[in-house]
């Protein structure tokens, strides 16, 4: 049986929050234990803050390369102002920086074919400026993935997917690269 933490648990929320929240809670717990617990129990009370300190370290490690909100906002603005001819080279450069070999496709379902260590990923990014990401694009991508025998599929969009599209992507193993993830992916390529 594989253990999966609930997304709504305190620890899961703290892992997604800024790292210093966990350290602040740990410090507060230690202070409260020192002030309010009798001498005999202070040590145990202060040690009970240790899980929050460990969470702070894990959250800091996960967030070490995370771009600032200002950098994300600027990148999204730059991407939104680009034409297709400007956007495609940025995407290609972003994937090359991650170690992929990039091949352009002449398909309505996918625009790029990525290869890394024999694993093929099809990427659809032509509708990156669409107001909403619908399920039609994802259906076409899934069909092409099956016919090309690709290992993975990804869809890129500046907007958030509809609920139906999100469920379809989850059910069919399609990675959605939207908003913050897209900005993080393209930051280095935009600077180049």
What topology emerges from the helices and strands here?
Blueprint: H1 10-16, H2 19-36, H3 42-47, H4 50-62, H5 69-80, H6 84-97, E1 101-104, E2 112-116, E3 119-124, H7 135-148, E4 152-157, H8 163-172, E5 174-178, H9 179-191
Parallel strand pairs: 3-4, 4-5
Antiparallel strand pairs: 1-2, 2-3
Helix pairs in contact: 1-4, 2-4, 5-9, 6-9, 7-8
Features:
alpha/beta; Trna Endonuclease, Chain: A, domain 1; 192 residues; 2 domains
Summarize it.
The chain is an alpha/beta fold. 56% of the residues lie in helices and 14% in strands.
Walkthrough of the structure:
This protein has helices at residues 10-16, 19-36, 42-47, 50-62, 69-80, 84-97, 135-148, 163-172, 179-191, and strands at residues 101-104, 112-116, 119-124, 152-157, 174-178. It is elongated, with a radius of gyration of 22 Å. Strand 2 and strand 3 form a beta hairpin. The mean pLDDT is 89. Helix 1 packs parallel to helix 4 (50-62) and helix 5 (69-80) crosses helix 9. With 192 residues, the protein is an alpha/beta fold. The chain is built from nine helices and five strands. The chain folds into two domains: 10-62; 69-191, Trna Endonuclease, Chain: A, domain 1 (3-Layer(aba) Sandwich), CATH 3.40.1350.10. Strands 1-2-3-4-5 form a five-stranded mixed beta sheet, with helices on both faces.
